[in-house]
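[step 3/7] fold_predict: job queued, chain A
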Amino acid sequence: MNKVMVLAQYMPEGAAPLVARWIDYFQCEFKIARNRNTKLGDYRHPFGSKGHRISVNHNLNNYAFLVTTVHEFAHLLTWNDHKNRVKPHGAEWKQNFKRMMQPFFELRVFPEDIHRAIDRYLSNPAAASCTDLHLARALKKYDRKNENQVHLEQLPLHAVFSIKDGRRFRKGEQIRKRFRCLCLDNGQMYLFNALAEVVRGTESPVSGT
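[step 4/7] structure written:
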């Protein structure tokens, strides 16, 4: 199976030929990776005998997979232009991300809501990366629905929830973009992203003190 056919299984079909050309042009090792809780994708610059390397999580929906792919290729282009002399998500990376995203806008591979969210992100210099919450929300709307899971921000204050490893938590106050949550198993506090996928607990929320 050729690269275009493989890529078309993970991203909008119309985007696959261009990404395949990028892989060949930059002589990049492109890996469809297992699910990683701490990151959606990864770029590694040439080192020793290895060239450019990009990996993207296999379980992303088609639009999130493409946005993450463009995000990582923008890192590659920034490295080629500046090496490590600029910030990872600084003005140079933002400009490259915008440039590399433009062909997919012209191909109209994104739904209108995602297109608008990307435009908004690119015009917001305060956003550090594609973890911008507005863009993340737009992308997550296209995830496969799991009736047992919700995003943490959807739960009321003090609601009980659990995560994949079975630990149970009580939702606390929001601190900037994260929620401070008490682990009911060990009594320690943890910070969770507002869009963390959790399983709603059967306990009723308790009132605050």
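[step 5/7] annotate
The first strand starts at residue 29 and ends at 33.
The chain is about 35% helix and 20% strand.
exit 0
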